[in-house]
Amino acid sequence: MYNGSLWVDAASAVNGTVERQSYTATAGQTTFSVTYDVGFVDIWLNGIKLLDGTDFTATNGTSIVLTTGASVGDLVDIIAFGTFALANHYTKTEVDTLLGSASSTPSIDDNGNATALTIDSDENVGIGTSSPSTPLSLHSALSSGGAIAEFRSTGNASSTLDIRADGTGDSRIWFDLNGATPFAIGVDNSDGDKFKISGSSQLGTNDRLTIDSSGDVTLSGGVYLGGTGSANYLDSYEEGTWTPTASSGGSFSSNSAFGSYTKIGNVVTLHATFIVASNSSGAGFGIGGIPFNQSNQANAAAGFYMRYTNDSTYRMFYLSSNIISVYDLGGSATTFGQVSGKRFDFSGVYYTDA
Hints:
This protein is mainly β. It contains one helix and 27 strands. The protein folds into four domains: 18-81, no CATH class; 104-138, no CATH class; 171-219, no CATH class; 238-351, Sandwich (Immunoglobulin-like). 3% of the residues lie in helices and 38% in strands. β12 and β13 form a beta hairpin.
């Protein structure tokens, strides 16, 4: 073998890689002379391989001893294998010792200047940090505008980042600024798998936007449309129904009163229909029950118009103190008695502070 500078003996008792000796046994013969390296010899008796330590003993390197003496004429084949030693290598014992004394946190250095990759005893992987606190911690002093990670599909397949939560946990991403987590985005497992943006590290806490499985969107605050000024702020939208009620001194026929409304910001558009119950009351004709109180702001105008009536007189509507009062074209207040049994369908718009 070559030791790095010259050829030397392989340090084996066997000349070459294998050496075979054959014997014809005498009656009861147990010992056979042969040169071998201990632990590297096979014995065959009449073509049957014998078991070392059970059927024979081979411990001295110069002979083997059968446990049971051979019969006269038995064929004994002894095959000795050559061994050799490698220069400049570790044995298994030496390797085990090295691994046992090695650091529990192996690392890979980039040019020896800083730790590029660290795997700690909890199997956390750190890139750019020697103390990873999560299964994968990536630290980098980024240049301005630099990306901390890139996931690229170089083929024609889609590039997918799969954030999966098995069990009952949420699948989410945190947006962390200097140790604070002002926003989280993801799927809330505990709330019907709704997609959410939350002003907290926990989905379901301080939710700002929610999209359910039907595609319906819920906002916890208002929306700026076309700008960021107060004039561009839309803080609410609502649709619903309301029931017109008669002011003091009158009433509406049973089941005849119905109304609907749409509220966009501070503007309420409403519609109503009802039949004034038969009476001769001289009390002023007024309509209450509007869905939102009218605005207290000065010059918060309101306007209403008649869609249908079987009353022979055209009427005007005026909103004050959340009551829609009714007048004739001459400006005189209308009484319940004057519109007894009449039907009114009207629509209107007014402002609210709600």
